[in-house]
Amino acid sequence: MPRSSFTAVLAGLALAAGTTSLLAQQPQSKWKPDDPNRPHPPIVTPGPAGAPVPPPSDAVVLFDGKDLSEWMAADSGPAKWKVQDGYVEIVPGTGTMLSRRKFGSFQLHLEFREPTPPEGEGQERGNSGVFLMSHYEIQLLDSYDNVTYADGQAGAVYGQTPPLVNPARKPGEWQKYDIVFHRPIFNTDGSIERDAHVTVFFNNVLVQDNTDIWGWTVDHAVAHYKPHPDKMPLGLQDHGFRLRFRDIWVRPLPDDESR
């Protein structure tokens, strides 16, 4: 779920790139963003968690359990999260981490662990987010035995599209996302030519199937596109909860503008 501070950071990135015009999109949904009446995805039990496996030979390794040299704070200074025992843990209040490298279309793998014992409920339980190109959020949340609005639970394109199912494991167990993202294509005048699309596997279970992304992630509002550079950093959000991450790697993909 977005926080105003992170939204301000992203707006600053757009302004720095000279991309300020707002372009309306018309999402194909009868549901309002974050609608509590929207049906919840069915719960499924995923297979057992396994140990991390080596990344592909052509992957860009963003975190191998040793240091945060590939990451920075939103002000471009050093990332301030805690690294120990092969994982990095969010230090609440230190801010979102951004990758130093920038990406367009890509395959992303990351593993995460929700805090245990769980505290809070709904959006106030293990909340974070994976921001693709800094602007398009795949929600991170403790969605095990925790009810919230459908497009705000783990595996959702936040505020837009709920996951097909809920395969969350218990807090304290390692979980993973495998994400294939195709960036949006903009015309020379800044209008949108092709929306971004995303496919997400959550604990090896398909939860987003080439899903159309309607625009920048916003909170309790209809998403819209703003033009931005062809490559942007990845973001991992500090929402005040001590999630842990490990085994983060990316495979850049070519942009197939004929899709």
CATH topology: Jelly Rolls
Mean pLDDT: 90
CATH class division = Mainly Beta
| Distance, first to last CA | 29 Å
Strand fraction equals 25-35%
Q: Write down how many β-strands occur, each being a DSSP E stretch of 2 or more residues.
A: 15
Oligomer: single chain
- Summarize the main sheet: 8 strands, antiparallel
Helix count, DSSP H or I runs of 4 or more residues: 1
Helix content: under 10%
The structural class is mainly beta
- When the domains are counted, the total is 1
Order of helices and strands: HEEEEEEEEEEEEEEE
Question: Any guess at the CATH architecture?
Answer: Sandwich
Unreliable residue stretches: 14-26
Q: Rough shape? A: globular
Say which CATH homologous superfamily is assigned. Exo-inulinase, domain 1
CA radius of gyration is 17 Å
Q: Can you tag this structure with a few keywords?
A:
single chain; 259 residues; mainly beta; Jelly Rolls; 8-stranded antiparallel β-sheet; 5-stranded antiparallel β-sheet; 1 helix; 31% strand
Structure write-up:
The protein has 259 residues and is mainly beta. The chain has one domain (4-20, 29-48, 56-252): Exo-inulinase, domain 1 (Jelly Rolls, Sandwich), CATH 2.60.120.560. Helix content is 5%, strand content 31%. The protein has one helix and 15 strands; from the N terminus they run αβββββββββββββββ. Strands 1, 3, 4, 6, 9, 12, 13 and 15 form an eight-stranded antiparallel beta sheet that branches. The protein has a five-stranded antiparallel beta sheet with strand order 2-5-14-7-8, with no helix packed on it. A hairpin with a 3-residue loop joins β7 and β8 (136-140).
